[in-house]
Design goal:
The chain contains 14 helices and ten strands. It is α+β, with helices and mostly antiparallel strands. It folds into two domains: 195 residues, Sandwich (Jelly Rolls); 108 residues, Arc Repressor Mutant, subunit A (Orthogonal Bundle), CATH 1.10.10. A six-stranded mixed β-sheet has the order 8-1-9-3-6-10. A four-stranded antiparallel β-sheet has the order 2-7-4-5, with no helix packed on it. It is globular. It starts with a helix and ends with a helix.
Amino acid sequence: MDALSEILRVVQMSGAFFVNARFSAPWCYQSPKAALAAPWLDPSAEQVVIFHLITEGECLVELEGAPSVHAQAGDVVMFPNGCAHRMASAPGLPPPRGAADLKKLFSSRPRRLAYGGGGAPTRIVCGYLACDTRLARLLLDGLPPVVKVSLRDTHAGPWLESSVQYALAEARSPRPGGNGLLAKLAELLFIEMLRQHVHQSDGHAGWLAGLGDRVVGGALNAMHRRPAHDWTLADLARAAGTSRSVLAERFQHLVGTSPMQYLTQWRMVMAANLLRRSNAPLSRVAEEVGYQNDTSFSRAFRREYGQPPAAWRRSLADAGQAAHA
């Protein structure tokens, strides 16, 4: 299994669409910082990543202090750093009054919006993905403030786009399951964006750029196929078809850490998910992620999560009980 597929298999994510909009020029839509929207979108999420699918027309995407980005039908734009942004038919337009009322905006989902000056139409579907903070950091660090991917340049894109349109219609029908269908499509759309960006990462560092690199990607895929293996730098270099020095240099440049440090980080993400989702004893969790004794495993886990694994698991259980009290 490749590294991206393994991450998506192991780590829990959830998604949804929260706005289905039809604008007519001139118009402007203000999107808040992801951290402000998160309590309304998914109160239990550690982090949310917001993205927009343009299904008709075109628009400008504006962020404070950054060049505007032109997006058109078939494009998806994502904001890896959770920046507040606006989307508009022309530069410098103000959002409508009351647009910052998040409680009203997210009171029903997907919220239907329709406003503007009656000119050229643009349709946008806004979605989010809720995930573990460490997963978001792993996948998205090193990306620019705005990532744009064209779905219509891919084999899966037209199918995804038409499926989202179908699911939006189903969400308004009396038949059950419409919102569940939308949630799964939001996750699929996010995954397709990541897959496409692997091949568009020229000039950028980060995990996705590393995955697209022949050398670093080879090492990443080897680690994710066998995370519990007793890897050495020499083993990984052989798997990637290069020397230890080349692998170490390219891995550090693209991923921002050494191969062995990355392996430890990924093992801890795996361990956290096993601790969260199962009652397996610590000795079994340690063995599953490549540690032969509880002591070394507990030490590594505490460095990453700030608590020993047993205490971390208890804190999750206490938080869950408090939430349902």
